[in-house]
Design brief:
heterodimer, A: 2 domains, two-stranded antiparallel sheet, two-stranded antiparallel ribbon, rod-shaped, B: Four Helix Bundle (Hemerythrin (Met), subunit A), 10 helices
Chain lengths: 90, 220
C-alpha cells in the first residue's frame, strides 16, 4: 500500500540523486587545479611527463629549432623543465 | 520475494560483468570524479536518512507530515545512501592512481592511503549496511536487538562525517563545508531533543509509578 502510495516521491528522489551524481562527476572530471595550488597540497599527482626544452646559446654552430628560436635569449645553454601538475584536491 | 531475489541476482551478475569489462578500459579521471561525487551525495542522503529517523523518534514532524510518509522516506533514503556508498567504494577499484584492491576497500584499516580515515570510512559503510539490513530482520532479531542495532546508525553517521572531513578532498569547497556543518547541526539538535524527550518520559514513568495506588499502598 505504502510502496505504491509514495512511488512518485521515490522516483523523484532517485532522479535527483542520479542527476546530482552525474553533475558532480562531470564537474569534478572537468576540474584541474592550477599548478600553484597543487604545489601546496600533499597529494599532488604528476600525470603528464616532464617536457624538456633545450635552449642553445647564441653563436653555437647547431641550427636552433623554431621553438628555440622563439624562446632563445642571450643566456648560455641551459635546460628548462616544465612539468604539468594536477591535484586530486582540485 | 522471489522477484526481489531474482532482480538482486541479475544486478550482482551484471555488476560483476560490468566491473570485469570496464577494468580493461582507460577511464581516465572519471572513476575519481565519480568517487568524489558519489561520496558527497551518499553523505547527503545518509544525513537525510538519519534526520528523518530522528523526526520519527522525536515525533517532531507530527502535524506537518504523516508518520507513515516520514517512515517510508527514512527507509528509502537509507537504501539509496547504502547504494551510493557502494558506488563510492566500487569506483575506487577503477582509479589507477590509488590502485586499491577489493580487500582494502572492504576490510577496515588495510588501506595504504590514509589508513585511519579510510578505515573509519569502511567501518561507517559497514555500520550503515548492517543497520539497513536490520530493517528486514526486525521480526527475526526482535524489537530490543533491532533498537540496539539501530543505534549503530549514529556511529555510522559519525564515522562517515569524519571520513568525509579527513579523507575527502573537497571539504574546503563552501557547499561541502556547509553541508557538513548543516547536517551535524540538525542531527545534533534532534539527538538532543531525542535524549531530553527520553529522559522526560523516564521521569514521568517514575513519577507515575510512585503515585500509583499500588506504590502508595506499598509505602504505607
Amino acid at each position: 500500500m505504502a510502496a505504491t502510495r509514495y512511488q512518485g516521491m521515490r522516483l523523484a528522489i532517485s532522479g535527483l540523486t542520479a542527476a546530482a551524481v552525474v553533475a558532480g562527476t562531470a564537474y569534478f572530471a572537468g576540474t584541474v587545479a592550477p599548478a600553484a595550488e597543487a604545489e601546496g597540497t600533499p597529494d599532488v599527482v604528476d600525470l603528464a611527463p616532464a617536457t624538456t626544452t633545450t635552449v642553445p646559446a647564441t653563436g653555437t654552430s647547431a641550427a636552433p629549432s623554431a621553438t628555440a628560436q622563439a624562446t632563445a635569449t642571450a643566456t648560455p645553454t641551459k635546460t628548462k623543465t616544465t612539468t604539468t601538475r594536477r591535484s586530486r584536491a582540485s | 520475494m522471489k522477484a526481489i531475489a531474482g532482480l538482486s541476482a541479475i544486478f550482482v551478475a551484471s555488476s560483476v560483468l560490468g566491473v570485469l569489462a570496464m577494468q580493461a578500459a582507460d577511464l581516465g579521471h572519471v572513476p575519481w570524479a565519480l568517487n568524489r561525487a558519489s561520496g558527497l551525495v551518499a553523505f547527503a542522503l545518509l544525513s537525510l536518512s538519519v534526520i528523518t529517523g530522528l523526526l520519527i523518534s522525536t515525533k517532531s514532524s507530527d502535524g506537518l507530515m504523516s508518520r507513515l510518509f516520514v517512515f517510508e522516506m527514512h527507509q528509502f533514503l537509507s537504501v539509496l545512501s547504502v547504494v551510493l556508498i557502494g558506488v563510492h567504494i566500487a569506483s575506487l577499484l577503477f582509479d589507477e592512481y590509488l590502485g586499491f584492491t577489493a580487500l582494502e576497500l572492504v576490510v577496515p584499516f588495510l588501506s595504504p592511503y590514509q589508513p585511519l580515515a579510510m578505515g573509519v570510512g569502511v567501518v561507517g559503510a559497514w555500520l550503515c549496511a548492517i543497520t539497513l539490513a536490520s530493517f528486514w530482520m526486525r521480526a527475526q532479531i526482535g524489537q530490543k536487538a533491532w533498537r540496539m542495532l539501530h543505534y549503530a546508525t549514529f556511529a555510522g553517521y559519525g564515522a562517515s562525517l569524519w571520513h568525509g572531513i579527513a579523507a575527502g578532498t573537497d571539504t574546503r569547497m563552501a557547499v561541502v563545508y556547509w553541508m557538513y556543518i548543516g547536517s551535524l547541526a540538525v542531527v545534533a539538535a534532534l539527538t538532543t531533543l531525542r535524549i531530553s524527550g527520553y529522559r522526560k518520559l523516564m521521569a514521568r514513568a517514575a513519577r507515575a509509578s510512585r503515585t500509583s495506588p499500588a506504590a502508595r499502598a506499598a509505602g504505607e
